[in-house]
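Sorry, I am new here, but would you mind making up a protein's amino acid sequence and the tokens describing how it folds?
***
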Amino acid sequence: MNQSKAASTLVKARLPRGLADRGADEIAAVDTMLTAIRRIYELYGFDAVETPALEYTEALGKFLPDQDRPNEGVFSFQDDDEQWLSLRYDLTAPLARHFAENYENLPKPYRSFRGGYVFRNEKPGPGRFRQFLQFDADTIGSASPAADAELCMMAADTLENLGIARGDYCIKVNNRKILDGVMEAIGLGGPQDAGRRLVVLRAIDKLDRLGPDGVRALLGAGRKDESGDFTKGAGLSAEAIERVIAFTVARRSTNAQTIEALEEIVASSARGMEGVAELRAIEDMARSAGYNESRISLDPSVVRGLEYYTGPVFEADLSIAASDEKGQPIRFGSVGGGGRYDGLIARFRGEDAPATGFSIGVSRLYAALKAIRSPLVARPPHNGPVVVLVMDRDRIANYQSLVGRLRDAGVRAELYLGSAGMKAQMKYADRRKSPCVIIQGSNERERGEVQVKDLIEGARAAEAIASNEEWKAARPAQISVSEDNMVAAVREILERHGL
């Protein structure tokens, strides 16, 4: 086979749009984040549960953006029984199925948390992925606004436990019942209007990103984005559009003033006034617990894009000042959200089960913490394994024995398995971010010794000697020790550098 023909048979190495590979640094940082989140969720009395990434498509129900097209918004396929399966779109619908399926054996209220990847069959873009990590906490079986208030308080505590300072975040709260009152006022209160209501919800949900004019376009005929793609709008009249916009901008300088403004907007709607009363109850409980409106704030622009929410809805919004690599300001906005979904479990049991939940978008929050250089997601620059170099390839068993001693002592270590010489092996250790290497040639082996080279100290000395003669008296970066003292010497190096 000639070279050109062989090249034509190669598979192109490429990642699908909207997906991302993760390296060791990100994986370690996210694990640290999940531990911090889990600590607060457990502090509030939530227990862990895990559901699979696949569900029967019918179990997702109205959770789907479009029930008539299973692949619209979700990734779906048929199994060998011709049953439709879908990758989970979020973690809430699988929880509803789990609760209904195990109803008799679960305590009520049922308080659980779970983390995992979710999948969206949507157009990817900056900060919008087709696979991303979420971490949820939910209470099922309580209709009290206290359950919603507790989630808002827990969300605030979680962000602070992740290193987000007060003043750099806000938990914004609204109530879908108030929006239902607005929908009734503009003639979209009937069951036949469900599709248009969903378009309105999703339009309002984009207020933070598109601004009032962009939302007006989506509430009207539609909007063309920067790429030229056109999104069909809700087709509302100009009067109805302005009424919806007035609702979204009803936030005032204090929570009490916001409640007054909302009461005026939905005064003619019993359902809308019920929503206002629930907001007042949440605000009272949060304030009594020490969460003032700089931490938990009422904001009518928060609606959440999914249709299953039935009452209070909330978002965790970041206002951290940061800039990208080009120095342009970054606004992260929402890094989590949730709300009450009292009707979701009724699909399985025929009766409503009051439920409320909050979800942190771990992937988005990680990007925010990374942008502000949070210590929580910063790994030490030298946290790779100790590398045992191979000088004599016919004595590989001896080197493996040295590696074994380090591992038995709990020291992360590896044997160099390549075929390069010492100089290349040292470069390999640098790329592995190794704090030190073990070197043993035939002379050292005969004496029962090894050379331990401190790569961190060596790098510092190499930089300083050229400009400061005092470094000539510094501790040597390479020392000889007996094989029996190798572990102790390595540990001393690790401790010296805080590893």
Notes: The domain at 24-53+88-377 is CATH 3.30.930.10 (BirA Bifunctional Protein; domain 2). The chain has two domains: 24-53+88-377, 386-496.
